[in-house]
Amino acid sequence: MEQIHVTANGISVSLAVWIVAAFVVLFVFVCLVAILISVRIVRARDPMRNPSMLESNESSHALNFAVGRDEKHIVNFKFDQVAGWTTITVDGVLILKELSLVSFELMKPYQFWVGQHEVHAVRIERHRPLFLAFARPQPLKAFVDGILIADSSGIPIETSD
Asked: How many CB atoms lie within 10 A of CB 95?
């Protein structure tokens, strides 16, 4: 079997090396283009850059609930499963904005305090399915002072006042 040699600047290199090098360059180019496209998509879906993304869509999970008796606060939690943005607002004030593209945790907790005179501990849990998490719903549960007060299943939570 004969080998074909190509001479470049006086250096003899086999054709197979040139083909492999061309594929490596092509692969790197395709990866860079894919990264640039995904960054543009994530930036376009950023709720702070594009306020229309705050409205609910089929890929987002939202949970809204009230905290407190005398000092009422409205907590809004939104997770966009496609872009990976998580936003939490209390009375319209942004307290968390997080981008999560890859997660290996089956349960992601978010904990914070709400209130000035009537202080409450709030914990929101986002549960990720083990298999095909990107295509399946991710249930949400909200706890205030350790008591479940809301979840994304739509079933009313019995509370004792």
From this structure: 15
Domain that holds residue 25: 5-44
Please tell me the distance from the alpha carbon of residue 75 to that of residue 58, in angstroms, as a whole number: 21
Burial of 55 (0-12, 13-18, 19+ CB in 10 A): exposed
Report yes or no: 124 and 139 within 8 Å, Cβ to Cβ: no
How confident is the prediction along the chain (161 residues), in pLDDT tens digits per residue?
Answer: 555 555 556 556 677 777 888 899 999 988 877 776 666 655 555 555 555 444 545 567 888 999 998 999 999 999 888 788 899 999 999 999 998 878 888 999 999 999 999 999 999 999 988 888 777 888 899 999 999 998 887 665 655 55
For residue 140 the two structure tokens come to 């949400």
Return d(Cα 136, Cα 127) in angstroms, integer. Answer: 11
Residue 154: both structure tokens together = 């739509």
Strand 73-80 versus strand 85-90 pairing type: antiparallel
In a domain, 72, yes or no: yes
Q: Is residue 156 part of a domain?
A: no
User: How distant is the alpha carbon of residue 121 from its chain centre?
Assistant: 24
